[in-house]
Amino acid sequence: MEIRTASSPKDVKYYTTERLREEFLVENLFKVGEITSVYSHIDRIIIGAAMPITSLMLTPGEEIRAEYFLQRREMGVINVGGEGTIRVDGTEYTLKSRDGMYIGMGAKEVIFSSKEKDEPAKFYYNSAPAHKAYPTVHIKPENCVRVELGSLEQSNHRTITKYILPGQIESCQLVMGLTSLKPGSVWNTMPCHTHDRRMEAYLYLDLSEDSLVFHYMGEPIETRHIVVRNEQAVISPSWSIHSGCGTKAYSFIWGMLGENQDFDDMDGVSLGTLR
Ligand SMILES: O=C[C@H](O)[C@@H](O)CC(=O)C(=O)O
Ligand SMILES: [Zn+2]
pTM (2 decimals)? Predict the structure, then answer.
């Protein structure tokens, strides 16, 4: 498990491109036949992926000193590859592309598999420390809350599908979903915001080989960018804006952990404030 420490905005404003990427960009999440994981000290999120050819069992790794991965944790998963299955303590769930799962604290055995070896499932996950066992649920995007935001005129017309949130799929602290831009729209989350109460992680998707996203981060008056390519993730500290502009329409999975689970508890940043 790779460990990343927390960082202060007082230091981050002096970082070079390379240092910014080292701290906040997660480049090689999807590895054929492997489960990868990055443990961040920021709210102790674990960001990872499973890309099974043969079955892959989730193991805790030395770093979390647990008997099993979800002993004191919960996890949200979204499949961004071909059809696959997740077996949780003997119960098998079949996840089509973009289906999700919430796996509650206490699940001992989590096994990832793909239906077709040449079109493997790609399970992206966010895991948070937990204190209570909420039910494990297969999440179908068609049954989720959907919000349409933005407009083509502002290049930010998008649909937000909320997978894990209070009132729909209960969790201890994880809130998770997927946002897709409409063709011709390239901006996500602009006007942007911060939420000092929660950190956030973004996984960018649906980018072709020849396209990329400029992800913006930093305090609103001290912004920086990170060039992000397909299936790469960005860790966004609570003090940072998180917004992106792509060379084409794309999607991204967002996951939040922290003080509260209130999606709308954000501090909007006016365009006039940004620097
Ligand atoms: O706090 C909320 C998160 O930043 C994202 O959900 C924003 C987002 O998906 C969007 O505006 O498109
Ligand atoms: Zn946010």
Answer: 0.98
